[in-house]
Amino acid sequence: MSLIEAVRHGGTDVLTSLRSVCDDRGLDALSRRLAELGELLVADMRLVAEGLGEVPRGERRVQRASHHLLDRGGKRLRPMCVALASRVGAGFDRRGRELAVAVELVHAATLLHDDVVDLGDQRRGAPAARAVYGNAASVFAGDWLLIEALRRVRGADVADTLDRLLAIIEEMIFAESLQLDSRGRVDTSIEDYFRVIDGKTAALFRWACHAGGRSGGLDDAACARLEAYGAHLGVAFQLIDDLLDYTGDSSKTGKDLYTDLREGKLTHPLLLARDASPRVVELLGELLASGEGARAGLHQALVAEVRPVLGETRALAIREAAAALAELEGLPEGPGRDGLRTVALATVERER
Amino acid sequence: MSLIEAVRHGGTDVLTSLRSVCDDRGLDALSRRLAELGELLVADMRLVAEGLGEVPRGERRVQRASHHLLDRGGKRLRPMCVALASRVGAGFDRRGRELAVAVELVHAATLLHDDVVDLGDQRRGAPAARAVYGNAASVFAGDWLLIEALRRVRGADVADTLDRLLAIIEEMIFAESLQLDSRGRVDTSIEDYFRVIDGKTAALFRWACHAGGRSGGLDDAACARLEAYGAHLGVAFQLIDDLLDYTGDSSKTGKDLYTDLREGKLTHPLLLARDASPRVVELLGELLASGEGARAGLHQALVAEVRPVLGETRALAIREAAAALAELEGLPEGPGRDGLRTVALATVERER
């Protein structure tokens, strides 16, 4: 169980779980930090869970499809950023909670639409909403959660947050659009890769950290630092996500990789390997043209090519996490700032 | 060319076109009213067209998919309602224009998502955006136009309009969800039919009229009347739309009807005919189970059954238009109110 999973479960066992993750890996200092973070966040994340529970349930198909996803939990890392950023300022109040709920709803809305677009069958270890309730319900459920999120932000009435969120969602959509242009191609540039993850992943982290700071009453300069922290954290998070395709509990199969290629999703290590070896370009072309039977073998061959560059992706993730930490320097000391530091450190250590 | 089409084309020939539509049908009084309305609206609708033109163009796939739809024009009846309602008050200013653009963008967003959900191939007499740019681009294009619309409303900063629009969009989504439950069924109740059209069609007309009134500085009571006008107008509009499936230039084919049934779209005349004759229930069941070859014949048989009830649908549309007119009574006299009256009258006379 990762830090994030453990925190989301809340309850009394959270500290034990958190410690055991780190103790296994001999990270004593991080283990202590995580224990403190757990104590700090248990109550906050319970408030977020309550807030998500207030999204109206009902027999409508869009509601059932929405709660099908929300009830699976997920990491809730974005609301955690809102809570911690608000604690850098005056604290996590009712308005901060609304912003934290909203950021998770926006994230859920994008997952619902992504699964329709990518024909995804699994999400958070269960059948995707679109597989249970259909594509149509999943499109409208995404629309609904987006509207619910905007209503929360509107209701919280924290300066800047609504206009910024609308602009951030536009960035996310443009990044999705850029990714669509890469479908079935293996020549995506590293620059386009970063454009896509800046929009698809980092943008919402940016908003979460900035909005949290605002709800804590912080000034423009402090909020700008929090926003920059969020940008770096988001990139680090995505790079590690990419890495876990090759190393983690849920490391990908030949079928997954084939699907990713069809959808234009070339991960960072794969791009590095491609640029390092013409053999990878050949293998990717073969995989794209392959029948189902050949995919496992091609995947094996690709994994062997990718393994040597994984260290480079990890190093870049660590640099991004370090850049995130650097942004925290100018902020008021205290448990909020310490918590954000721990999140950045844990992000590059996570195993799922 | 209908009133609406003519107005949308703007330009110097608008009065001639409008008059000829009505003169053909011997509606001299309405012809004169339409001529006045055309004069009043040409400039306003040009401003709306300019505003829609300011939605950023670009090479992104979501932008091309969005403009593919927007460039086809459409009736623009909802922005027309904003313009006229604002003219019941102090007039159609910059802020009113933003609201008028926004309502058209929300409408366009729903069309983009509807076409994905219904696998629609044609829209506004051209291939649907999803047929040209793909389902994925069409989902994200709908998301984008929704966000653009909300940014416009936010920027216009007219009291009430943003919160109300968010609530209205939720109503629209719930109506879509209700319709999903009727897929492949022929036992939809008349009550559910009205629930669906209240949400899918009338809700946005309600918002358009209310928001227009607000931007014209009207008080709560006047805006409530405009909102009620919009609700009745929307229902009348949809009933006539349903009628035109059986009478209009673009009357539906067996294939269209089959598709509608699969999507749970039972029109008002079809529901009336179903409740009047067990033969219709049989025919609908046969159509749903039919192969392509049999559909034209079954459609013919259904049209014969539906024809006797068309007058009832028309009568109901006229009653709704009359109810819309009644709401206008308590409002300040002037060209705005006269224009709204003409829109309601023309809505039940339109032929496409």
Give a structural overview.
- The structure is a homodimer of 352-residue chains.
- Chain A is mainly alpha-helical and 352 residues long.
- The first copy, chain A, has a single domain (3-347), classed as Farnesyl Diphosphate Synthase (Orthogonal Bundle).
- In chain A, 76% of the residues lie in helices and 1% in strands.
- Chain A contains 17 helices and 2 strands.
- Chain A has helices spanning 3-9, 14-24, 28-53, 61-70, 77-88, 94-118, 129-133, 135-156, 161-180, 190-215, 220-247, 254-262, 268-276, 278-289, 292-306, 310-328, 335-347, and strands at residues 122-123, 126-127.
- A two-stranded antiparallel sheet of chain A has the order 1-2.
- In chain A, a hairpin with a 2-residue loop joins strand 1 and strand 2 (126-127).
- In chain A, helix 3 packs across helix 17 and helix 4 (61-70) crosses helix 8 (135-156).
- Chain A starts with a helix and ends in a 5-residue tail after the last helix.
- Mean pLDDT of chain A is 88; it is low at 1-18.
- At the A-B interface, helix 4, helix 6, helix 8 and helix 9 of A face helix 4, helix 6, helix 8 and helix 9 of B.
